[in-house]
Amino acid sequence: MIVLSGEHGALNHTLISEKFINTREPHSGTGPNMSHEVLEEMKNAVVNFDAEGAVESARKALKMGIDPVEAIEGGLTKGLRIIGERFEKGELFLMHIVAAAEAAKRAIDGILQPEILKRKAERKVLGRVVIGTVAGDIHEIGKNLVAVMLFIAGFEVFDLGRDVPVEEFVKKAKDVKADIVATSALLSTTLLVQQEIIQALEAAGIRDKVKVMVGGAPVTEEWAERIGADGYGADAMEAVSIAKRLLGVE
Ligand code: B12
What we know:
The strands form 2 sheets. The chain has a 5-stranded parallel sheet with strand order 4-3-5-6-7, with helices on both faces. A two-stranded antiparallel sheet has the order 1-2. The longest helix is centred in the middle third of the chain and has 25 residues, at 94-118. The protein has 2 domains: 19-118, Orthogonal Bundle (Methyltransferase, Methionine Synthase (B12-binding Domains), Chain A, domain 1); 127-247, 3-Layer(aba) Sandwich (Rossmann fold). It has helices at residues 18-22, 32-47, 51-63, 68-88, 94-118, 141-153, 166-175, 188-203, 221-226, 236-247, and strands spanning 2-6, 9-13, 127-133, 155-159, 180-184, 211-215, 231-232. Helix 9 links the parallel strand 6 (211-215) and strand 7 (231-232). The protein is α/β, with parallel strands linked by helices. It binds cobalamin (B12). Residues 73, 77, 80-81, 83-85, 87-88, 94, 97-98, 101, 136-143, 145-146, 182-184, 186-188, 213-218, 233, 235-236, 239 line the site of cobalamin.
């Protein structure tokens, strides 16, 4: 039994099969066009701040056999990106991002994430990961997805939540003898905190005992290298393969 600790308590679990993690094609009875259509519906629901629509189209996607991770990445996330771009251009206000994020979260928390967690199979623990969104940053949707994917892949995941002080990452890593510290940052201003966490791990004398993985929309491979992180993942699937590679458990 493994525990995914998070802001909302703990989740008991066993693990998902390798097959599920690698499966990105819909199962049966769905042509690529129909899958594309329902992913478009999910994207549009987020863009139109339509929580009911997001939930409904998420249900529909699962019924059609679309992988729930694909539904998040290929549907909801695309909608959030569009909203982000419009916000940047000054076409939308913060309340619009809040409403779009709420629509995406309702579909993820209510429909897709429970389905991801259901698809699991027993396997030994691959390693311990401490994860969180860095101090000053309250973006959590992507971090949550990474945490869940690591969890179902077989990692023991300690999710510290969002806006997590630097010292908390260090303390938790020490307490649970973490193999990996994974940090998420979505703001150009909070990117720097990823570097501070690495420096704090060094200062605490445990940098050589943990691998550090970084991610979040503005994070790049170059940034990861510059701050001395061990790995960077562009999305939740990559996060899993990098975590496995870092621990040599592929
Ligand atoms: C939703 C959202 C919000 C929501 C967050 C809700 C929540 N509960 O999380 C709310 C409304 C709270 C919000 C607030 C703000 N936001 Co905002 N927000 C977004 C938006 C639209 C989507 C983010 C998202 O959830 N994406 C979907 C997820 C699935 O993707 P993701 O987070 O990138 O995660 C994936 C990968 O990056 C990766 N990953 C993520 N973490 C990790 C970690 C590891 C270790 C690894 C390996 C991989 C990995 O895997 C994930 C899954 O695939 C983005 C736009 C964008 N393009 O990102 C803006 C955006 C990030 N926000 C922005 C801004 C400016 C703000 C505010 C400052 C606005 C304001 N004036 O107050 C505040 C910040 C508050 C704070 N202190 O944090 C800017 C940032 C600009 C910048 N470069 O700094 C963006 C880019 C919008 C824009 N284009 O201007 N926001």
